[in-house]
Amino acid sequence: MRLTKIKDIKGFRIFKDFEWPENLDDFARFNLIYGLNGSGKTTLTSIFSDLEHRRGASALSLNFEFGGETVNGKLPQISSIPPVRVFNRSYIEHAIFEDPAQQELAPVFYLGEDSIEKKKRISELRSEVEEIVAELNTLSSQKTSNERAFEKFCRERASAIKDAFTRPGGRFNNYNRPAFESRAQELLIDSPARLDEAEKERLLGVTRSQPMSCS
User: What is the three-class DSSP state of 213?
Assistant: First the structure.
């Protein structure tokens, strides 16, 4: 079953009161419709697009003939008609150029209305990825800053220990940051009791008053 004629179009844009002339042949398998600008070619594609999507036309009256059966264009959803596909300017703008993320023609084309929804989802996911990447960059910067601060702390603590315990031939004479970090990791595992300030000063006084062993 195929479209044989548009029986009438009334009250729709340029078609005020169109009826299919009796001397006009029915549509064949292939048809070419041509005319001057403003003669209704684009309007016809809009009519067929409504039919494709089973949308009721806004015309006062619109009737098609499919294989001898009349189809009301204002109520196409209740009729059994073959699939209709329309490729016009509106389709191109909707199925190729319509992109919420960009208004320019992209190097990759997404054809078909089903693909448009996927393309919109891709645009949404692309925005989410950009946000995640920005957050990762921030966290990476914070991590680098924290690592540098930790290295500075370990270096300063190692230097303080070296200054406090350096003696001729002493084992702390070459004390450095890696040694401090290694010992700090051991203390984290062993979890010894932490000295208060008074006890720490007392022990430091003892070490300053006695020569360090070379062993």
Answer: coil
Task: List, in sequence order, every residue forming a beta bridge with 5; answer none if it has no partner.
Answer: 65
Report CA-CA distances (Å) from 88 to 43, 96, 121: 11, 12, 25
3-state secondary structure of 75: coil
Long-range contacts of 192-201 (CB under 8 A, 24+ apart): none
For the chain, the domains span: 3-86, 125-208
CB neighbour list of residue 8: distance below 8 Å, 6 or more residues apart: 18, 19, 20, 61, 62, 63
* Burial class, 46, CB count within 10 angstroms (exposed 0-12 / middle 13-18 / buried 19+): middle
10 Å Cβ neighbour count for 10? Answer: 14
What is this structure's pTM? 0.44
pLDDT digits (tens, 9 = 90+) for 97-152: 555 555 444 445 555 666 667 777 888 888 899 899 999 999 999 999 999 999 99
H or E stretch covering 131 = helix 113-165
The answer to whether the beta carbons of residues 116 and 98 sit under 8 Å apart is: yes
In angstroms, the CA 108 to CA 100 distance is 15
Percentage of the chain exceeding pLDDT 90: 32
Would you say 170 and 214 are in contact if contact means Cβ atoms under 8 Å apart?
A: yes
